[in-house]
Design goal:
Length: 256
Amino acid sequence: MRKPLISGNWKMHHNHFEAIQTIQRLAYALSSSDYENVDVSVHAPFTDLRSLQTVIEVDGIPISLGAQHCHWEDKGAFTGEVSPEMLAKLNVSLVIVGHSERRHIFGESNEDINRKVRAVIAKEMTPILCVGETTEEREDGRTLEVVEKQLEDGLKEVKTSDVASMVIAYEPVWAIGTGKNATPEDAQEVCKGIRAKVENAWKSASEQIRIQYGGSVKGINAPDLMKQKDIDGLLVGGASLDPDEFSRIIKYRLLD
Ligand code: PGA
């Protein structure tokens, strides 16, 4: 049985004071039964991580600390970058890798993304590898082909046991921040394809690997998305900035 993982991607929002307030309000809105049903992570900007680590540890909040990206080397002359080793020291446990904004705005290649996936695993953190097609690719009927290639390249030389404990986030590029989410059936179709691809290449990992859907998730659409057989969680951008709305998503069972 895969435990759902609901992750908030704050992107470039919330300074460290706002981050402290947000996580405290989120923790206040959640109860132990929520954490029994769902794993929760928050992916904050780098400048917030040290403050959030303190609040999480001092207050004993069962939310996993996450980052939004990193470099693949431990250290070196890479101005502006942060290493997986530095994140691990802050007790970061999950790192988003290959988000479409990193791929499209900052030009990250599948090769860079694969290096990052392996570097994150090497520091005993869990990568959330993002995959997803653009509007044109969907209209050309190439969704699965694109997603399968992103998986193949992103997971090159990753051991089956490491693939099994990873997270894949299916985020159609056209659904991110647009208010146009994929229908639960469309999202399920692609997530099923992702699991089939994992089964094909990494066999036993396919039963354990968690697959999230992301793209304009809100309290109102979370229950139907979470009902889908191959959707094991959600990667939430805009709606995760507001602790009330994010807690509604985490409590999706109650909204149904
Ligand atoms: P959104 O972002 O929920 O604001 O569409 C999702 C994401 O980019 O992870």
